[in-house]
Amino acid sequence: MGEITTHNKIITSASNLFYTNGYNSTGINEIIYKSGIAKATLYSHFKSKEDICIAYLQKRHDSFLESLKSYVSKRKKGRNQLLAIFDLLRDMYREEDFQGCWALKTLGELSPKQKKLLALIQKHKKELLLYLGEVVGDNIINISKAETEKISGGIYLLYDSAITESHLFKNDWPIYMARSIAPLLFANSEVVQ
Asked: Can you give the residue ranges of the HTH tetR-type domain (predicted)?
């Protein structure tokens, strides 16, 4: 197994365990076992469980943002692009292993000492907010920076609530409700047709 393949195998195995069982409930030995590698091999790729978690969070975030950008680009300009994040969430929910937001799940397990993981989660959430701001700016005509932030922030909060609540209730109604509320955020704006 090549270096890159081993590295990715560790991240993939840890990702599945962290997302399904939680960060704190997943031990290094379990990651080693699921990866089918020796302990020394794991430590030649990652110094700590926290470093594995950083790679997991980065991989999940990059994959999500890539999927979201693809969803947006494939939709007609205007309302369809503004609501694309909820369509992506609906598809994510339908996946067999849906466990809610990987970042918020990890955040809920962090101690105040785990500042590196907290900073990474904050960075990822800010990147999502900035991207939603771009989507709003591309789809609403003559919009101010303040209005862009208000609408993109509202979409972001509806999305985060919907992903958490759909996991909590094991039902997709929060996704549909958030999607139906979101247009109220830009009801008084001139949306691209």
From this structure: 4-64
In a domain, 80, yes or no: yes
DSSP string, 33-91: HHHT--HHHHHHH-SSHHHHHHHHHHHHHHHHHHHHHHHHHTSPTTHHHHTHHHHHHHH
The answer on 105 and 23 residing in a single domain is no
Please write the tens of the pLDDT for every residue from 21-35.
Answer: 999 999 999 999 999
The domain in which residue 10 lies consists of 1-46
Say if residue 25 is in the same domain as residue 97.
no
Q: What is the pTM of this model?
A: 0.93
C-alpha distances (whole Å) from 105 to each of 93, 108, 113, 176, 178 are 15, 5, 17, 22, 20
Residue 88 CA to residue 76 CA, distance in Å, equals 15
* Whether pLDDT at 128 is above 80: yes
Instruction: Please state, as a whole number, how many other Cβ atoms lie within 10 Å of the Cβ of residue 19.
Output: 20
Alpha-carbon 112 to chain mean position: 22
